[in-house]
Write the structure tokens for this entry.
Amino acid sequence: MTGIYLDHNATTTLDSRVLEVMLPWMQAQSGNPTSRHVFGRAARNAIEHARAQVAEACGAYASQVIFTGSGTEANNFAVKGISANQPARQILYSAIEHPCVSRPAIAMQQLGLSSQAIAVDGNGLIDSAQLKMQLKEPTSLVSVMLANNETGVIQNVATLAEMAREAGALMHTDAVQGLGKLPLSFTDLNVHAMTVSSHKIHGPQGAAALILDKRVDIQPLLHGGGQERGLRSGTENVAAIVGFGMACELAVTNLSYFASHTHALREQFEQGLAALNVMVFGKAASRLPNTSFFAIDGIEGETLVMALDRKGFAVASGSACSSDSTEPSHVLLAMGVASDLARGAVRVSFGAHNTAEQVADLLATLKQEILRLKQLTSIAA
């Protein structure tokens, strides 16, 4: 497959060093981690080593790491599992959450809980004054993502968590986009639960984790064999978990380079965008170093994404998990962006292997395609 990949917030390629540690668990005879024999004990030891690697990357204890099959599962586990064991109170979630947080929160209304979105300002930052007002009502859980997958905007989760704690609520953060891009500490964020995922950091798909304060009472989503301390039943995917552990170790080692390298690429890219009359969303806020979300008035984002794809550039029009939707980004609408402009949104998310030359090529191609598409629009009008 050829082309320049610029969609690292959606997923990343599997690192060869990660594949290397996974292969023995995919090719050789391995045991069920719950089995007592030597094969089972070896699998169990491999999982526990990976658990320690994930914990180290997240500033947590290994005993706080619960492995799941995806970030979506971990977020559902947090929202549904924590709320199910709380009194019938409200769930609060930011208006810019990924659907795997907002939809479970809304679904909990069937069990008698209410759910409400927390507004954000024009830069995509939580309106803390509104959150304070909403917390006057008895609240079981507040969920605010650490960094938005579309805009890259970073929330001050530790401060929001303190507000939640003072109101007697538990705090969860979806840190899937933060892992490997920002220094990450479960303790410093002051939360009760945190979601991380493997395939965003050059690990395999099919592995993620919920980092959970052991004092939190949570209801399992899955019941069965009692794996993961009875909190996530199902035979563990040893190869994927081992790969996740190695990916976490590498992410910590490479964090400084990744942040400085991708930030330089983003700055180069956005300086080039400035000459094209482009709106960059969330630019006034702290953002992930690798993420740029922008729009050109009068050009559909999906149209531009497909045009760039034909030229060999893989970018996105928003969240990969909702890319089949024709609706404008709910994140941008929550930020007060007009629907027509929001439909023009395109996301570029750089990775460690992208280069300044690729950015220059992208800018040149982008300029050509914008001119071409505007000419077509003018002719059609």
Notes: The first strand starts at residue 4 and ends at 5.
